[in-house]
Design brief:
The protein is an alpha+beta fold and 273 residues long. 16% of the residues lie in helices and 44% in strands. The termini are close together.
């Protein structure tokens, strides 16, 4: 529809088209329209599409779709962006509950710029996936669910990984279930105090993205549960931005897990259809 106002946001390089659900009906955005707006050459360009609609006070419904038009249960960076957007547009206050297909997520703005945090109260620890055959430079692998499924592969040097080729082969590995999983490649800090490095091949985008919030959570919990670090852990996304994961490990689970990262508005525009 002509005259529709959209907003382009980024979370550490993971980018989204975000719409205010008070102005837009979800029914007006079928799969074809979502894929068209997310197309980078002929549309706005985005890894995902978000429509936010306020429900009861302090609660916002987050509808999230991948760039290919498939609906996804959760996206961490989209949730960070949604938190900043909802607060700035008056859909909620500085603290809120996001209603996602993966369940309610507590979130809050941090500071007066573009940081936000989201919370998962309870996450099962990732498990080993012996059916995945590791290649040269790959050390360990584990599988976990943070709203959506993630494979985490610890590697010697993430900068040397062919994420497109290797990620595509792992994304649909039979051991990861019918719908597959995101494939996250992680390497240790190069010096004390430096961040862990992470790169992600995302299903639904079917390519590498510059950041993945839930993948970073899965990686942090995987690193900690395998004994290679302790929470909180600092990561640097392939987009170059920091993401921090805090929480505590229990018997078979991680508790009170928080992800802190960017949720920045890039521009707002009127869409001409």
């Amino acid at each position: 529809m002509s005259g529709a106002v959209l907003h382009k946001m980024t979370g550490s390089g993971n980018d989204f088209v975000v719409l205010d659900g008070r102005m837009h009906a979800l029914a007006d955005w079928p799969v074809g329209r979502i894929t068209a707006i997310c197309e980078r050459r002929t549309g706005v360009g985005a890894d995902g599409f978000v429509l936010l609609a306020p429900e009861e006070p302090g609660t916002v419904r987050m509808h999230f779709y991948n760039a290919d038009g498939s609906r996804a249960a959760m996206c961490g960076n989209a949730a960070l962006c949604s938190t900043r957007f909802a607060a700035s547009m008056g859909l909620a206050g500085e603290e809120m509950t996001l209603l996602t297909d993966a369940g309610p997520i507590a979130s809050r703005c941090v500071g007066d710029r573009d940081l936000a945090e989201i919370r998962f109260g309870h996450l099962a620890l990732p498990c080993a996936v012996s059916a995945v055959t590791l290649q040269a430079g790959e050390r360990e692998a584990c599988f976990g669910v943070v709203g959506v499924p993630h494979l985490v592969v610890l590697v010697d040097d993430v900068t040397r990984v062919d994420v497109t080729r290797r990620g595509r082969s792992l994304r649909s590995h039979p051991a990861l279930g019918e719908e597959g999983a995101n494939a996250n490649f992680v390497s240790a800090p190069t010096a004390p105090g430096e961040p862990w490095l992470i790169r992600t091949f995302e299903r639904g985008v079917e390519g590498e993205t510059l950041a993945c919030g839930t993948g970073t959570i899965a990686a942090a919990i995987g690193v900690a549960s395998l004994g290679h670090g302790t929470l909180p852990l600092l990561f640097r996304s392939w987009g170059g931005f920091p993401l921090t994961v805090s929480g505590r490990l229990g018997a078979g689970s991680a508790e009170d897990v928080w992800l802190r990262g960017q949720g920045r508005l890039v521009f707002s525009a009127e869409l001409a259809d």
